[in-house]
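Submission checklist for the structure archive. All mandatory fields must be present; incomplete records are returned to the submitter.

[x] Identifier: MFS transporter
[x] Organism: Streptomyces cellostaticus
[x] Residue count: 420
[x] Sequence attached
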Amino acid sequence: MPPFSATDEIRPTSAAHGPDPRRRGLMALLLVANASLYAVYMGAGSVLLPTQVEAIDPDHKVALLGLIGGISAVFATACNPVAGALSDRSGRRNPWVLGGALASLAGLAFLGSVRTALLVGIAWCLVQATMNVYQAAVTAIVPDRIAPDRRGTASALVGLALPVGGTLGVLIASRTAGRLATGYLTLGLVAAAAAVLLTALCRDVPREPNAEPVPSVPWRRRAALFLSALGSRDFRWAFIGRALMVLGYFSVVGYQLYILDDHITLPAGLRPAAAMAVLTPVSMAAMAVSTLVGGLLSDRWNRRKVFVGVSAALAGLVMAVPVVAPTWPGMLVFSALNGLAFGCFMAVDTAVVTLVLPRAEDAARDMGVLNIANAGPQIVAPFVASAVVTAFGGYTPLFLFGGALSLLGALAIWPIRGVR
């Protein structure tokens, strides 16, 4: 049998379902649901987990955090597209939203109760797996229910989830860094409450399940079909650009607590966790502004690529600021500029992605594949970052590495032809 080609069975179709006028407040619910995701990712991943790892083994914290992050990447990247495909097949989103969030609550409660590196690794893998089930279903709601000509605005509003959720998560984590169990449990309750709110106020509209039973399909063909969206040229370049940008950003952000402790000269009396509680709102406020402005202007001008490319290039260039000025003022400037760049990128790039999906009927599955480029690098980043810091010594190479990845991500957007 010849190799399977995505174009054999997947053709571009009309856009996803238009908005249902009965669903007033859908955007607000999606904002809350996505914010809870980032509250967990940023609060637990950037503050609580590094604090927990340092308490277990302070001499090997960089390598240990990287190892835990690398192993958990397998679970995160596998669960997201699988959950998306199962959600497509079932024709419903809400059971996956609610189930993933409640399972994450249990995983976070378990994570806060363990005291060895092995159990921390196991617990973090469970959290990443279940949060990606939640994320896959929530992400699919935009192409399901938002009209294409409103994707930029919708993506901008949903994109506010990162600054809102990231700030909330880091503030919770910073205040509970000395009480890890409380911090993890609080973040889990935030995600569970958001899922309950979304599923209670935005009922599923049963969709026609698009995966009819196919008899005797070889596993290789099934795997090819599962990843067939990557056969679309535009989707593939969007995937590459997102992966590079996210990896560059989170390679630095994931180690920010250690950077503040070991690389930056902080003012007297300012501890790294407290510094995080200052830097994060600065970055997230800038991100909120650029998210809204970028999304709205990209709709008004019907231009997406220039916003994505310029913002990714800016993100790469500002990585040089902490190298030139490893000081507290330097970190404040870096956080503000990096927030501006990353916010605009994520808002407009999400609109680009929804516009290059090969088939609306497979939206959740294909967004799940795309989310490998979003969630996977976030989890792999500690592993990659630890390797860079260990191999080259110190955090200056890490900033340069992250900047190079962002610049490559800027270049990856230009080959996309289906979006202006």
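[x] Structure attached
Curator remark: The two ends are 38 Å apart (CA to CA). The chain has one domain: 25-205+230-412.
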